Structure formats: structure tokens, C-alpha cells
Amino acid sequence: MHIFFALNDSYSRHCCTAMVSILENNGCTPIHFHLLTNGISDDNRHKLGQLTSHYANASIDVRVIDNDIFDSLPVSINYISRQTYYRYAIAELYPDLDKAIYLDCDIVVKGSLSGLWATNLDGCLCAGVRDLWIDNIHYKPEIGFSLDELYINAGVLLLNLELMRQECTFAALCQTTLRPPCNIRFQDQDAINIVCRGRIKGLPAIYNFTSEDLLRHPDAADGAIIVHYTGERKPWGRKRCSNALKQLYFDYLGLTPYRQSAIRRLASNAAWKLGKPFRKRIAGPQPLRIALLIDEFFGGAGTAYGGYGFLARYYIAKYLPCDDIQIDVLLGLNRHSSRRKAIKTRVDDVDVYRLPGRRHAARWLKKRNYDLYFSIELTTSFLKYERSKDKRLLLWVQDPRPWEEWLEIETVKLFPESCYWNTEVYELVHKLYEEHRVRFVTQGHFLIEKAKRLYRLHPDTPMMFLPNPVDIDPHFDVRNYKKKDHIIFIGRIESVKRGWLFCEIAKRMPEYQFFMLGQSFREKAQNDSIMEKYRHGIANLHFVGHVEGEEKAKYIKDAKILVNTSIHEALPVTFLEALAYGTLLVSCRNPEGLTEKFGIYTGPVLGDGFDNVHIFVNAIKSLMSDDERRKSLSVAGYEYVKRTHNVPDFIRNTRALLREEAAKRSLPR
Asked: Which segments constitute the Glycosyl transferase family domain (predicted)?
């Protein structure tokens, strides 16, 4: 069994500990260690060499590498040395070997490696274990990978050296590191995953049981074979290592020639920690602090259920935070002006704040010192309390409503929609625009002119297209899924949605089943009273209420048509969710032309809409009676959403925007 380590002199002790752990648990197997280094002191060579006298199955080969070959490769992670790149060259340095195991030095082995060594690589370049931490921070889209694609932690690799030589993998790895196809952040690990993409065999987590595995699957720790102390904090370091398996390192360290020096080092660390309160703290790299401004968080912290909140909670707060981006959700001011403290609620691993009252908001924002404000539209004006003139706003245009839009909405008389026109907010945005402190992006091209009118922007003001994301079920087969004769409505039950029209349509079409997904929230009593007469006596109409997750997805998946009866819409997320399951659209709104492309656009329907129910009925009949056309549009809609509104593109593009805008804070205008 050939096992490789890459190290500098300072890591000799940790490498020796890893080697001893291997030998203690693999006594019947000949182990040939290959140490790739830029230089090891005589003392460390002597200590490492002692292993061969204690373990008859061990041999050690020390190979000094010419560092000039790797000097041009960037090192961007402060606790990782340039020697990490030596693994690139193993196939070329050892032309007589066909297979090898590579291990980082920050590991211990507590079981047999025979299963790993016997793994059939099946024509793959290498094998490794999925990196759960990378999965958790949704990093893969930043390098062009899909969210469910295999990305491995490169600290444990089984290498197909023969195939790597045939395909000149060493040159490809160096080329990718020097001139990456995208902005890579995890240097050699990214390069290995990019170059070997699609040619990596996944290994069980027992062969690279990281700190993240321990957090997620603590019960699996006993079965782990290779324990990997990932991250900056190591068992031997001065900073506290929270890995519950750190004692294993010291157990094996005690079996090495370094055991006496280890005792001295532990004493030194203890003294350092005792003096910690008296030393000035030196801050390391800190993540960007992003404040997401929103007035609802889809039920989180007791807020309403709506499209903005859905986007904020299930896409922005879920997918964008990572190792260098922290997101806090700010819901607005406390209505009690004298309230001194913010109210903090933890929702889905994100901090959600209700700010102090207006008298204390400025001081609170100063203390939080956010790097950037990010807003889905802008619904409150508390940003006026931000006194720092270098703080910027990234405003995602979602549903700008110039006054003419409100005039349309006010044609509804059955139960008029409350008008949320807010001159103070619109003037605040204009002020930030005049101060060059706001950048606009938009979810739809058709919204650009509306935003320019609402915020009084120059006609040439640029707005980057940033489409809303939607999760795509990778297992959904749009061509073969057998849909039912179901028609659905998704949305809050309120005046602007005109849910009563959906009920009237159901009355006229008893041959189909109609499902109303949603509930009333704002002005609940009035909305419920209008809908009450429809809750009984219509056998094919089902009031489902508020649903989420798999239950909601099942309703959408089974339905053939989503009906939207709103008097006003921008581009609702529900349209994208429907198309993601091949469900067609029937609506009197046609945002971005999607309704007429993937369903039937009825044309505008103003007022209460009762006199136009037949238009919706005819549109539904047209689609339901032509199954070939419906299936063709279903596939086209699915492909459009997959291409334009996928989550990986959203993650990559939005994180890049946040970093770019936050960086402008320190730049002169």
C-alpha cells in the first residue's frame, strides 16, 4: 500500500502522528510512506525514521521537491502551505506506481485502510468523499457545478496514477490553478474537482470523516476510519478546536517520538490561553455583513406569507450565506419609538431582527456596521437612520408600482385593496440614487421602465437582469409524468388576488377539480367573509389552506393549469414554480410574456371581474381539450425555467453582486 503525504518541516510532528495511527491499525499490511517536502530538518528526519524500527511493515521515502515548479501557483488560504500542491505531481514523480492514497497531515486513522485500497476506480481519475461543508455553504454553483453534483474534499484521495499520466493530469491541474475558468476560492481542491469533474468516484464518509460529518452525523463517529480535522482550528493549535474527536490525535501523538515535545507544546498552549484575556484581540478575516431589508419572512418571526417573504426566506437566506457572506434579516422599526433594543429571532439558522424604535435606530445600525444593505424592492424607510454615507444599497426591483398601477388596482370594488403608496420610501431611493449609493437589479426586463418612473431615475440608468430563482426537482420527468385534471390557485386570499374569480370558474367547470392553495393574512376578517359563500356547495372546489414543501410541490406537480386572477402582478414566484413542474398558466397578467408563451393570456381584466369569468373558462377549456399542445407547452415552460431561473446561477450571480457592491464601500466615488 503506497501512501503519500505533502508537508513542510513544521508539519513533521503531525505527519508522524498520522503515520503512527495508520501503522497501529494496519499491522498486517506493508505500508510504503512517501513524504513530499520542500525540506525536513535532520532532527525530524531522525524521528520519522524511528518508525521503521518500531513497525516492521513500514518503509519511508522522503522526496525533496523543487519548489520552483510550484512557486507561481497562488496560495489564498492562510493556514494552508504551498506544499499542498505537491499532490498534483505524484503520478509524474512515481512513474512505476499505478495507484496511490494521498492523505493530508491533519488526519488520524482508526481502522483498516484495506477497503479503501481495494476500491475499484472503474476508469475514474480518483476517488474521494463528498465535502459536506462545501454542500452546506452552497459553493458549487460559484465554480459552475450543480448543487447535487459530486464535489469532494481533497484531503483523502485514492489516485489512479496510470490514467492520470495518460491524460496529463498534472499539466491540467497546474493550468487550471494558474488560469481557472472561474473565480475559485479553495485553490488546489477546486482545481482537482474541476479537472477531474465527472471522473471522480464517490467514497463512503468513513474514509474522510470531517468536522462537518461529526456535526451532522455524530452517531456515525464510531464507524469512521479516517478522521480529518478540517478547517483552521486543529487539535494542536492555540485556538480552541471544537472537534469532539480531537483526543484521538493526542492518543496517537503519545505513541510517536514527539511525545515529549508535545507535552512542552501543550504546556505552552495552556499558558497562552491563560494570558488570552490580557492580549489585544487581532481579528482575522471577517465575513461580509449583509442586511436584508424586508417586511415579511414567509411566516418566520410571526410575519405574513407573501412572495417577497418566500424569496427572502427560501432563496436569499437559504442559499446566499457562506464562509465570507453573513446575512441578517431586518424587518423594520419597532412601532414603539422609545424601544431601545432590537428583538432578535432565530429562523432557519438566520438572525431576524425587529429594530429598536426610531429614537434608537441610528445608534443600533451604527453598532451593527453592515457592509451592504440588500432589499427586495424597498417597503420601509428606516434606512434613513443609517448615518454613514459610504453604506450602499443593492435594490432588487421586484414589483415597482407607479401611480397608474394603483389606479388599476382601485377598480376592484367588492373589497378595495389598501393602498401602500409610500412617497417617503420612493424619495429615499431617489436620494440614494443621487448620492450614487444604490445599484438596481431587476427580476424582469418589463419592470425597468416602471422602476425608473417610480424612483425618478435617469432614462439611461442601468439595471442588471437578476431573475428570481426556483428549485428544480432533478427527479421530475416533465415528458412522462401523468398529470391529473386538476387546476390550482396559489396565493394569499386577499383583494388584489381576486380569489373569488377562481371559485366562480370552478362553479362553471364541474368536470375538473379546483384546489385553492393559500390563506388570508392581512385584513383577514374582510377577506374571509367574501370567500365564505364559496366554501360550501361547490363539490369540485377544495380550500387547501397554506401549504409548503413536498405537499405544495405535489399539488403543483399533479395540476395541469395554474390560474392567476390577480388585478396586479409583477412576475410571481408561483408562475416559476408552476412551470418548473410543467404546469401551464392561465392569467389576465402577462409578465415578461410568460403567460402567452406557456399558457393562455386572457387580456386585462379590470374591476371585480365577474363579467369576465367566461374568458378564463374558455382559456382553460382550450388547453385541457388539446393534450398534445398542452404537453408541448409544458416541456417548453420547464426548459425555460431550468435555463433562466435555476438556483446555481442565482447563487453565483448574486454572491458576486454582493461582494462587488460591498467592496465599493471603501472606494472613492
From this structure: 477-639
